[in-house]
Amino acid sequence: MEFPHQTKLLLSLFSILTLLSAFNFTHVSGLSGRQLLQTENTSEPIRHSDDTVRVDPLDHFNKYKGGFDITNQHYWSSTIFTGIPGYAIGVVWLLCGIGYGGFLVVTTFWCKSGNRKLKKKKRFSCYKHCYLWHIILASFFTILAIAASGLVLGGNVKFHSRASTVVDIVIETANNASGTIYNTTGAMRNIRENLETTVVGFQASNFLTSTSDQLDDEAADIEREARKNRRLINKGLNIVYIITTVIISLNLVAVIALSVSGFLKFRRAVHWLIVFCWFLTILCWFSFGLYFFLENFAGDTCTALEDFQQDPYNSSLSSILPCNELLSAKPVLSDVSAGIYDLVNEVNSNITSLQQTMSLNLIYVCNPFSAPPEYKYLQGNCPENTIPIGEIPKALKVFISTSNFKTVEAYTTSIQNLLNAYPGMEDLVECQTVKDAFSEILIKHCQPLKRYVRMVWVAMVFLSVIMVVLVLVWTTKARHERNYHSSDGSVKHHIAAANMLDSGMANAGNGNTDHTLV
User: Fold this and answer.
1) Taking the CA of residue 75 as centre, how many other CA atoms within 13 Å lie in the half-sphere pointing to its CB?
2) Distances (CA, A) of 448 to 73, 236, 245, 317, 454
């Protein structure tokens, strides 16, 4: 059966909806999803920022030059490797701790000296002098460690909050895309019901059913992936936030406990707390490397968003946001706009003819699109003495029969429903939804996000250096006290033995004197 001109125009508008299923918004969340086809109409190579040229440990430490691509493991390895200063210092500090621990074991169990011939008076004077300096240094660096811990905790809270906001914006964009598709398919179902009363109802109904089902499946997939990716990303952010908070909180408690134990001369507690603080210092260095990597990743992301804003069809995000795949849909959308524009002009031309021949005062139909070649959609911008397409049946109700009225109502309502969904379809085709989301992130969140993550790693470096000095101060003090008490014990032992010997000799002398007198 041959479709009338109006029905062909209506069905041609539906054909653009099938192209929307190629647009996978699940990648907007930043996690890998289904692989998307590369378009053939991109003439220029994708731009890559030079900031992503880094050493790649997975490629024999060669330079990675693939640009910002979160689907590429070499990008991740090269970016994570930027935190190598923190990782390396942490490993060196760990080895130093193991080496010093081994040295203590050797000197304690295998290298004990017999008698240390030290003068008690000199040792006691040196001990009092060194103890005073240790207390001053320990107090000073403890205060600095507390201040640095506060900076890390504050920066960590702000970074986590800002990163969560960015994730919410991206996921909301995906949900909006899904909602737009659902709105479109809802309009299509209404159109299908309206056209069932016309002569082309069966064939149009089959087309609309298959197309709406396909789009519903895509919308459901977007929603499902958005929920899953939101959970995964939030889980990752929460893990980083919680681990950092726990490490710094434990470090803060350990530093205070170490100072109190040292001032009160709890030697055994001091020794265990030194070991614990040594371990926490290693974690602080590793955390510095982690946040240094996160700053580089945040900078790469913001740079990629800027490139996308300049040219969404030729940027480093094209592999995960294939806006260029929808370029083929734009001519179809333009043809539909032109068809509706010509149709409304034809109706208005007929109205003009009727007015001239029959002297009737008829109202013109509002054309929803501007003149060629733009064919821009003019939502809610109708001139005076015009009516929207959806109100045509009301104007013609008293002039036409009931059967014709139902046909006119079916066509006009169907076209009006599609016009209501047109802005959302246009935004999807032109990637406007993604552009708006990225623009909000760039303007409001990019700079604060990078500032807060930089604040965390700088404060973490400061805290790590302070912890190194503080641990060395308390280690030196503990070593000094150990030597002092060991030497002091030997001196006291020899003095006691000498006193006992002198006492015995005196007693023996007194006994001999008494015996002679008797």
Assistant:
1) 17
2) 27, 20, 20, 22, 10
Q: Tokens in use for 294?
A: 């996160």
Token look-up 């109202």 returns 363
- Radius of gyration of the CA atoms of the chain, in A: 40
Of 374, 367, 368, the residue nearest 348 (C-alpha): 367
Spell out the long-range contacts of 252-258 with Cβ–Cβ below 8 A and sequence spacing 24 or more. 252/145, 252/146, 252/149, 254/280, 255/142, 255/145, 255/146, 255/149, 255/467, 255/470, 256/142, 256/146, 258/142, 258/470, 258/474
- 0.90 exceeded by pTM: no
Estimate the share of the chain in helix, then strand, then coil, as percent rounded to the nearest 5. Answer: 80, 0, 20
Q: Is the peptide bond before 373 cis (omega within 30 degrees of 0)?
A: yes
Please give the distance of CA 27 from its chain centroid, rounded to a whole number: 13
What is the pLDDT averaged over residues 50-59?
Answer: 84
Is the distance from CB of 364 to CB of 351 less than 8 angstroms?
yes
Structure tokens that stand for 406 in this block: 């139902």
Q: Examine the pLDDT at 165 and tell me if it is beyond 60.
A: yes
Q: Which of 493, 465, 459, 500 shows the shortest CA–CA distance to 155? A: 459
Query: Which residue in this structure is represented by tokens 């506060």?
Result: 150
Q: Identify the bridge partners of residue 55 per DSSP, sorted by sequence position.
A: 63
Q: For 332-364, write each residue's pLDDT tens digit.
A: 778 778 888 888 888 888 888 877 777 667 788
Could you tell me the CA-to-CA distances from 97 to 86, 255, 279, 476 in Å, in that order? 16, 17, 9, 14
263-297 pLDDT, tens digit per residue, is 888 888 988 999 999 999 999 999 999 999 999 99
CA distance 140 to 144: 7
C-alpha to C-alpha distance for 308 and 314, rounded to whole angstroms: 7
SS3 322: coil
User: CB within 8 A of 141, min separation 6: which ones?
Assistant: 466, 469, 470, 473
> Distance between CA 403 and CA 408 in Å, rounded?
9
Element (H, E) at 64: strand 62-64
